Known about the structure:
Blueprint: H1 3-27, H2 30-51, H3 57-76, H4 82-89, H5 103-111, H6 118-128, H7 134-141, H8 145-161, H9 174-193, H10 205-221, H11 226-239, H12 265-283, H13 290-303, H14 312-325, H15 329-343, H16 345-353, H17 356-359, H18 363-375, H19 379-392, H20 396-407
Amino acid sequence: MSDVEEAVTRAHHGEWARVVAALTRRFGDLDIAEEAAAEAFATAVERWPADGVPPNPGAWLTTTATRKAIDRIRRENKRDDKQKEARMLDDALPEPLGAIDDDRLRLIFTCCHPALAMETRVALTLRMVGGLTMPEIARAFLVAESTMGQRITRAKAKIKAARIPYRVPSAADLPARVSGVLAVLFLVFNEGYLATGPGTDPVRHDLTAEAIRLTRLIRALLPDDGEVTGLLALMLLVEARRSARVSAGGELVALDEQDRGAWDAELIAEGHRLVRERLAAAAAGVAPGRYQILAAINAVHTSARDIRDTDWAQIRALYDQLVRVDPSPMSALNRAIAVAELDGPEVALAAVDRLEDKLAGYHAYHATRADLLRRLGRSGQARAAYDKAIDLAGNTAETASLTRRRDRLR
Length: 410
């Protein structure tokens, strides 16, 4: 990849949401914002090799995208009232839109409006804020690209028809709206943490960084919301391990094999501080939610200097608490990993096998089974489980890791 191609890729990762958000604020139309942003990046691919990368790529892209949007509006309004067109093209004065003036935060609240179905909110946010392509989003949802395209098109049309406002909700409305936004941000973070597309980087730092940035802004709006704090702590403790998660050879590195000296000590310290803050609230009688418990689990992991120092009993106790709060099959699957460390792989395998009906299409289920079968010496069954996990995994680094573990079986 040439230096210019790398510059375009970096700009896309770093500036896509900023450009789309700026255009959405100005023109009030997600379709116009997305298409103009895409045209601006296409123009960059054509122009930058000849003209050079501009000193401020984000400003260049925003200016170019704005011109593209104005051109489109002029074409579509040829027969309309010229005064109306002129008002639309003028720079609108920003309205007072909340305590924090951030276009991307307003964009995510627009994409996560409760009028939209949850999976539609996630898909629209991945597209408009994360800049994922339609094939990447379709793979994440295990649906056809055309189906996902239709969902996103309908969502944008609904936002336009219902005149869903482009703003951070008022203080009175925030608590009711924030849980849906947190769910979407967590999924955006997860897409960055372990990208689903086989043609993308296995770890998308641009997505994890943006999810963390937006969660910090929401915490500034709701400093006393335990789940906002919990989600931020969880993201920080997971992000702290990023540099140790993929080997030089491109393989995903499991937690027990990671170089803990490469973990980000500052992020871990901040995450632990936030977890302690929520533990104090729990001691005062405030029951923790899902994100707070997950953050506490990750705090235990990141407190151990060596995998052998991990307090598995505490982790299982936390998973017991999580299963009561969030009785999902994924919570039960992750709990089984702690059970294996305390009660042995055979007990854990029995627990995992009970989840087959709900998780048979999920690669992590088969990868967990494969590891437990390997530990029990059942190599043939382990190999078959690894094969199934490899077939279902989309992340290139994870596929490489699963393949190596399978091939090491005797």
